[in-house]
Amino acid sequence: MSHLNRRQALRLFAAAGAAGLAAPILSACSSSGDASTASVDVPSGPPIKLGMIVPQAGLYKDLGTELDNGFSLYLRLHDNKLGGRQVNLVKADEGESGDSGKAAAEKLVKEEKVLAVTGVVNPQAILAMKDTFETAQIPLIGSNASPPTLQGAKYIWRTSFVSDEPGRAIARWAADNADGQLVVVGQTGPGGETDDITNFVDAYKSAGGNVSGQPRTVAFGTKDFGSLLNQIKGTSGVTAMYAMFSGVSAIEFVKQYKNARFPGNFKLFAPGSLTEGYVLKQEGDAARDIYTALNYSPDLDNAANRRFVADYQKVFGTVPSTYAMASYDAAAVLDKAVTDATKSLDSFNLNAAIGRLGQIDSPRGGWQFGQNRSPLQRWYLRQVRNDGAVVSNVLTAELLTRG
Fold first, then answer.
1. Which pLDDT score is estimated for 43?
2. Nearest one of 290, 275, 270 to 185, comparing CA atoms
């Protein structure tokens, strides 16, 4: 596993970005194994209509923006073409519920008659729209974490991960580094959080870890953690915590955890959602020293990631998150699949082409779809560190490969 020193990375990415978007486009075409080469030297054809489902307001808007950014960046770098075809991208508002997400899917499939769809933030929504895509035989390339209960789909693919995977990825490392008993806390909600907690506990115990009591859970969207943190702080023998929170709950939990002033040797482990993307910007210094497991870190030292981070910084003025990266990869998947199916391009043949794809050369490192239509990929340990004025998730180690 190789990674860049944070200051080296920022200097390198800034220099690359200053050269403009043309240089990354050219360099992206230099390797025959690169997913971004799929739209080069392929037969052209009539434009294709694709759909994107993301929240445009409300609770999940920030996540939706990051998915939109990643996909639009790939199109921007490829002259708005996938597989040599001009793309007409039609966006539908996912809203905040399963019902609103399903309505967005129905609109794109039945009214807009799109070739394929990408996006989807809310796990409840991807479950609710499953039958829509399966019945219509139109592929959905989802680009956010999906719940373990999404089973048996033939037309739904994920470029992110299944929501219980981060807990399993960090469990052994946490067991080796907790230095005592560990308490588990988390939220119940639409994202498979209960599954993540259960699977983390199972893997942690299997690795020899000692869990204090039963997991302590609160409702999704909870913002007051004072009582919970005080109880944990007063529990004898507890030296570490695993915390499963996302969104506004993650932000408030991290801030209140900092204010609770746990002992200096106390360790906090979590899936990447606790400190990833837009939430880390609001958590700031309060997130320092938290360890998380995720399938991506912006300081990964590989050619695809150097180009991706430089281009993303130039266009959006910030480093990308795993959410943006997964959406960027969804475009790469479609690019390769459209190229493969272009002689008889329809939704059925496109779905078959996705099933034939080999390795995707991704900013996260190479990956390919597993039998569950989710990536078989490497998982990384990150630690939040304050490097000068920049609070970042810094790559610490490679954990394992799973999917």
1. 56
2. 270
Residue-range domain boundaries for the chain: 6-161+300-369, 165-294+380-402
368, two tokens:
């390919």
3-state secondary structure the chain: CCECCHHHHHHHHHHHHHCCCHHHHHHHCCCCCCHHHCCCCCCCCCCEEEEEEECCCCCCHHHHHHHHHHHHHHHHHCCCEECCEEEEEEEEECCCCHHHHHHHHHHHHHHCCCCEEEECCCHHHHHHCHHHHHHHCCCEEECCCECCCCCCCCCEEECCCECCHHHHHHHHHHHHHCCCEEEEEEEECCCCHHHHHHHHHHHHHHCCCCECCCCEEEECCCCCCHHHHHHHHCCCCEEEEEEECCHHHHHHHHHHHHHHCCCCCCEEEEEHHHCCCHHHHHHHHHHCCCEEEECCCCCECCHHHHHHHHHHHHHHCCCCCHHHHHHHHHHHHHHHHHHHHHHHCCHHHHHHHHHHCCCECCCCCCEEECCCCCEEEEEEEEEEEEECCEEEEEEEEEEEEEC
What is the model's pLDDT at position 59? 87
Q: What is the pLDDT of residue 73?
A: 98
Q: How far apart are CA 72 and CA 343, in angstroms?
A: 25
Which of 364, 369, 380, 394 lies closest to 303 in space, CA to CA?
Answer: 364
CATH classification number, 6-161+300-369, choose in 3.40.640.10, 3.10.290.10, 3.40.50.2300, 3.20.20.70:
3.40.50.2300
Residue in the block written with tokens 């989802």 = 142
Q: Are 197 and 244 a contacting pair, CB within 8 Å?
A: yes
Taking only the tens place, the pLDDT of each residue in 18-41 is 334 333 333 333 333 344 434 444
CATH superfamily of 165-294+380-402: Response regulator (3.40.50.2300)
